[in-house]
């Protein structure tokens, strides 16, 4: 979950006013994307119709997307890792190639020690090695460093959903 600024003045995001009520609605949807409009409204002090309108505006603006989140372990992917990737040349070119590989969940172009951070899921260590080898085979990749996930934590629990 994305950490956004806490309470403060309302601001416009993609044409939608994001005030404290909007922030709270987003937080609720991050916790349970299937929450009813009635439950959202009750929690934030709006009618069901007003909650529906607010959620719809957030969706239409692109400020919020409601998606299904999978648990890789339940789906048979026992090995998860973040892979730091250094490239020579345009990192976006490498990001496009790496994004197309099986087992890659997402790729982020970064600033700092690595040009890309890549999240990978694999059935086992052998498959993880295959994915790492495929990343290293991308023409502009010159080094990788693999960080195994040992104990994933749920996001948003300690400091709220923002």
Q: How do the helices and strands line up, and which of them pair or pack?
A:
Elements: E1 11-13, E2 16-18, H1 20-31, H2 37-44, H3 48-61, E3 79-87, H4 91-99, E4 104-109, E5 116-122, H5 125-136, E6 141-148
Antiparallel strand pairs: 1-2, 3-5, 3-6, 4-5
Question: What is the structure about, briefly put?
Answer:
With 162 residues, the protein is of the alpha+beta class.
Task: Please name the defining characteristics of this protein.
alpha+beta; two-stranded antiparallel ribbon; 162 residues; disordered C terminus; four-stranded antiparallel beta sheet
Structure explained in plain terms:
- It is built from 5 helices and 6 strands.
- With 162 residues, the protein is an alpha+beta fold.
- Strands 4-5-3-6 form a 4-stranded antiparallel sheet, covered by helices on one side.
- A hairpin with a 6-residue loop joins strand 4 (104-109) and strand 5.
- It is elongated, with a radius of gyration of 19 Å.
């Amino acid at each position: 979950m994305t950490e956004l600024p806490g309470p403060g003045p309302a601001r416009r995001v993609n044409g939608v006013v994001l005030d404290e009520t909007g922030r709270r609605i987003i937080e609720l949807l991050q916790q349970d994307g299937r929450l009813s409009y009635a439950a959202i409204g009750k929690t934030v002090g709006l009618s069901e119709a007003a909650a529906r309108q607010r959620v719809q505006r957030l969706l239409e603006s692109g400020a919020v997307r409601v998606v299904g989140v999978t648990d890789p372990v339940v789906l048979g992917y026992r090995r998860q890792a973040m892979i730091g990737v250094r490239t020579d040349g345009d990192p976006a070119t490498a990001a496009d190639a790496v994004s197309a590989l099986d087992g890659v969940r997402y790729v982020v172009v970064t600033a700092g020690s690595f040009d890309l951070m890549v999240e990978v899921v694999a059935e086992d260590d052998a498959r993880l090695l295959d994915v790492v080898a495929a990343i290293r085979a991308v023409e502009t990749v010159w080094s990788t460093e693999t960080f195994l996930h040992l104990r994933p934590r749920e996001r948003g629990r300690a400091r709220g959903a923002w």
